[in-house]
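Exercise 7.
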Amino acid sequence: MAIYATYLTNYYGLKLKFSTTTQEKKQLRIQYADKLLKKLNIRIDVINKEKLPTDGQYLLVSNHRSVIDPLIIELTLKETKLFGHWISKKELYNSFFFGLFVRNGGTILLDREASQMNTFFSDIKACVKEGDSIYIFPEGTRNKTGSSLTEFREGSRIIAIKNRLPILPVYIKSSAEEILMSALKDEKKERVIEVQIGDIIDYKDKSMSLEEAYKKQFNI
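Solution. The predicted structure, written as tokens, is:
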């Protein structure tokens, strides 16, 4: 499985390099996610699917428990016209496994070691100006604790406010990491990951923090 996943990731990373439109990138990302999760015999079940916007621009926020979370999100949105640039940390850009795909797939580099964040916010603004959305895991890194959610970093809300983006909350309800580990041991059994869609949050709403609003939406 590791050999297949490495081949597939780099194969689609190369195809993405030569893609010319965001919708072409979107379809390639969906194809990649679909092939890899089908190989693992994992199916995505979307709860409150009717709440998903079909088009527009949003700051999509999701919890983060596993390495396949971006794939889960891509398949959740496959029937929409939404295309988002993933906020990606520098380590993924330099990764042997993910590097080619991440650099070419439609991402914005977040370098936490940078002395200033001007370039980061400028890159986001440029993507939004082109009519695209932004996808982010507000926890900042994978949650490896026993709790459902770890603390949100405030930068997510700043992105929404600076770019006037309504916030689309998505919650990966199932324990994707456990399901992935189980699937790697036995691909014959079908496994289901449930994803729940929340109500759009107005970026101007300051009645509570983004973390509080997210938890309220999904009763966390």
